Amino acid sequence: MKIECRDVRKNYKKKEVLKGIDLVLEKGKIYGLIGRNGAGKTTLLSILSAQNPASFGNILLDGREIWENAEALSHIYFAREIITSSNSNASGLKVKEYLKLAETYLPRWDKDMAQRLTELFHLDRKQRITKLSKGMVSMLQIVVALASKADFTFLDEPVSGLDVVAREAFYRLLLEEFTETERTFVISTHIIEEAADIFEEVIFLHEGKILLKENTQDLLEHSVYVSGKTEAVDRLIQGKQIYCPEVLGRSKSALVRLREGERLSGGEGVTLQGVNLQKIFVVLCGGEERV
Amino acid sequence: MQELLNQEKSIYIQIKEMIETDILRDILLEEERVPSTNELAKLYAINPATAAKGVNLLVDEGILYKKRGIGMFVAEGAKKTIQKRRRENFFETYIQGMLTEAASLGITKEDLIDMITTERGNQQEV
Amino acid sequence: MRKKKSWFYHAADNLCGMALFLGILLVLIAVRREEFSWESAKTVIHNYFSLPGIVLAGVLGAFNVILLYESTEPLKISFGCTRKQVFRDMQAMKIATLFTAGILSFFLSGQERSRIFLKELLFWGLLLLFLQSICECMSILGMRYKGLMLVSILCISGIIGFVVAFMAMDFIKNGEIHMEWPISGVLENWLLWAAVFLLGTILLVFFSWKFFRKAEVHI
């Protein structure tokens, strides 16, 4: 089972928010969708789940269009950030009413799981959604996402309102659910470093385009931070793809992205260090230079 | 299997090395079952595919083997294999860096041998 | 199952609302006249409640249309319902409400079941369907242009207020409700008006669907 996204574009009022997205999401993977504010993450996820129409392009589930396709949509769920301001749709509802709606319309809803998670998170079922704290709202979003049991579940910033303890609990819950069911999860987040370990693949969305989509471990292995004496560093990075070169006195440093098969070895006044995912993201979304 | 993962090396390499270390320390004995990739994933909060990558490396090297439907087990002679390989890599892993650092500090090889024999730092004042 | 027949429940809501309003009216009339007998109640119902019944049900239905498009229907879409399903359910609710209210009105009217009465009933039924479709169209446009949503809520509240006030004034003046609608001249060309409303409804539904099928849902 897989979702294919073919040349998807989206315009909002003359502004091109998504500029030709090609993507394949496979069953049984956890993807991280990382991008700056305004990169188009929410838009992409809402289009991938047929919440909103693309201006151009197709989304297919196993070869069939998902737009207005009830059968296809029964396999997909998009857990948006629930907005609690008083004029939003969910605001008038109580937690239990919202859960009841989810139970009514999500075909694979697991009521026991929803019950268990609601208790685990100490969510007050009788509370109005507008009155919930930011953390509680995130937890409600997570409860519905997990209990939906959808084959493809998209979560938009699920941890934004959670403190670190709750975040760790979420990652563990997610892994538990994942190992048991092999559902696909696509999680958009700003808190990159924490989540990096659970993503099998990461997708960098930058200004409406996919900058990269790679296996997380491969990406990390192929990224090296080189520093040392300028001449030695220059010799080493000759012909390689480098980012953010900096010179300070007699020393130089740069981030190198190795291509398949390329290797770097240190020694002789050059230090090689690993780079974390957050650093790679910050560097890549800030431009690129070649030596 | 208690250490936390750090940023220094790829996670799956760390998983691999943790299992190897446990085998060396007799925490995991030959023909014993090794935690499954799902168990490892949940324990360290990492993606199961990453854990699997580390475990598969060990399978490729003949340190673990798979019993279908049951799990991964420590192969016979695994401990010896690990010791042999780590001995081969010992120079690169530990000595090379030491020699480079010593050179930049002006510590001679004789000083190093002395340190090793007496298991003490250089007492002379520079 | 709630999911499959949500329109059924919404239509039932409208009819219950109608019954509630009529019930209150009945009590008020009885108090005003100081007659509390089953006979007098029956007379009141037969004489005065048939047309107001369908009008109330229709207007409440229109209000419900706006309310649903504003709150629940987008949420249903967020849970995987197709826009087709949502739209179809809404049409089912509109028709079920008016059809059932029409039948109820018919039986409420007692002896007045003349041909003229049937024409009036049909007229009102189609006018209300038209009204509900206007509200639907405005709500759907309101999903895109948020200001419209407010305008349509205000309009329909105004209409409900007007209807209620009209009945109340009638009641206060005469102790009963005659619904001397200033439209009796219209009824002579009832066929024309029926066609106008029917056609108008069809056009509205057509345009509503055109807007709705690609509507953006921003929750």
From TrEMBL, chain A:
From the UniProt record, which GO molecular function terms apply? ATP binding
The source's superkingdom equals Bacteria
* Family annotation (CDD domains): ABC_DR_subfamily_A (cd03230)
* Gene3D superfamilies, per database record: P-loop containing nucleotide triphosphate hydrolases
User: Which key words are in the record?
Assistant: ATP-binding, Nucleotide-binding, Transport
The ABC transporter domain, residue ranges: 3-232
Any Pfam family = ABC_tran
Q: Which PANTHER family match?
A: ABC TRANSPORTER ATP-BINDING PROTEIN ALBC-RELATED
Protein known as? ABC transporter ATP-binding protein
Q: What is the lineage of its organism?
A: Bacteria, Bacillati, Bacillota, Clostridia, Lachnospirales
From TrEMBL, chain B:
Q: Which SUPFAM superfamilies match?
A: Winged helix' DNA-binding domain
> Which Pfam families does this one have?
GntR (PF00392)
Q: List membrane-spanning regions.
A: none
Keyword Protein transport annotated? no
Alphabetized UniProt keyword annotations: DNA-binding, Transcription, Transcription regulation
Where in the numbering of this chain does the HTH gntR-type domain appear? 9-77
Indicate yes or no for the key word Transcription: yes
Under InterPro entries, the record lists: Tscrpt_reg_HTH_GntR (IPR000524), WH-like_DNA-bd_sf (IPR036388), WH_DNA-bd_sf (IPR036390)
Q: What is this protein called?
A: GntR family transcriptional regulator
Q: Which organism is it from?
A: Blautia hansenii (Ruminococcus hansenii)
Taxon lineage: Bacteria, Bacillati, Bacillota, Clostridia, Lachnospirales
Automatic annotation (TrEMBL), chain C:
Statement: the UniProt record of this protein carries the keyword Chloroplast: no
Q: Report the transmembrane regions from the record.
A: 12-31, 51-69, 90-109, 121-141, 148-169, 189-209
Q: Note whether Transmembrane occurs among the keywords.
A: yes
Domain of life of the source = Bacteria
Which UniProt keywords are given for this protein, alphabetically ordered? Membrane, Transmembrane, Transmembrane helix
What's the protein here called?
Answer: ABC-2 family transporter protein
Q: What is the originating organism of this protein?
A: Blautia hansenii (Ruminococcus hansenii)
